[in-house]
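Q: My collaborator sent me two sequences in one message, no labels, and asked for predicted structures for both. Can we handle them in order? The first one she listed is below.
A: Yes, handling them in the order given. First sequence, followed by its structure tokens:
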Amino acid sequence: MVESNPPRRLNVHQALGGGSVADVILWKKWYGGVVVLMSTSALWFLFERAGYNLVSFVANVLFLLVVILFFWAKSASLLNRPLPPIPDLEISDESVVKAADAMQIWINSALSIAHDIALGRNLKLFLKVAVGLWVISYIGSLINFLTLVYIGVILSFSVPVVYDKFQDHIDEKLCVIHRILQAQYRKIDDNILKKIPFPSNKQKKIQ
């Protein structure tokens, strides 16, 4: 009897990009994770609990930064000191092209999905999008956007670490859940979705 090989473990560090960002998320550079969590916690407290306004906060920070840099530069010229070490603030053409290419892929994918849904070609895709939008709307009615971002940051610094440590047990449970959901989806597909008539492409062209 041939024994099945055990599934390969996912390299979470490589899945996250394998760079310094992955090191921070997986707490290999713990000081980076501490700085990010403390910063996001402070911002969430300022805007959610202290009632600080985002626009006024950004304006005050920029105003303070401009004043400090201005008087620093003036005092440096009077005292023959070096100017503030400010790098050249510009965006390279390569960065703009990469960002535009990435945005084009996402936008074209979203437009393709919207096109298929508008023409009624794919009921399964329509149901998936409808359920996803309903879930987003329901979550948005419970918490605001800033709290949602804060929860996302906390989860991004906790879920990858837990999964990397207990990957085998989590994969086993996820496989069981996936099989159950697939079985339920097949029942709905066979009993409901496949019985709904749809006009074929030839009929649409004739119309």
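Q: And the one she listed second?
A: Here it is, processed independently of the first:
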Amino acid sequence: MANAWRIITLPNWTVEKRGSVRGDVVESRKVEGYGKVYRFTGVVNCPARFLYEEFKNNLTKLPEWNPTILKCEIIKEIGDGVDLSYQVTAGGGRGIITPRDFVILRRIALLSREGRVVDDNPHGYISSGVSVQVPGYPPLKEMVRGHNKVGCWYLQPRTVQTAGGKIEDQTLFQWLMCCDLKGKIPQFVLDVAFATVMLDYIVHVRKFVAEAKARAEF
């Protein structure tokens, strides 16, 4: 988690692709020990706490509203804010990348501006994950086992004033990705695929948020 936060807050990123929504951007940079990492940044119209609680408490429900994830199950709750999960992604990049499965050790927390874990009034919320090996979940013959070197969703609360003077909560949504998808995939293909996957993902997040708002869930 500390490594994910440190990397996602680093300066000097290079733009890979901009999205159709103003402010949406996928960037990349090289990081010692990890190689090339990718970062998505965009704004979602909901309180950051709402998204954090959804990711925290309803991880297994992600496939219900996010078609980029085919399966997600909790293997074990290890402690407060720490768990093991098995996930299958739908692939992406307009068919460039086939489905992969992952075994992820996840850590979620509220963070201060300096990246320290706090109990309340956070500067941001983090849900981080790294691949691990777990007995009973070996790689499957029919599935390529991906390796998540470092990654997180980092959600920062923002408020904006509308033209009518109303104050609304927003989330500055950032996603750090550094995956070894295995297989001999050229870097230029990965650049296109990762950028496309990240920009597709945020479309589903915004749709989920809009539907939740319509149901008065926040």
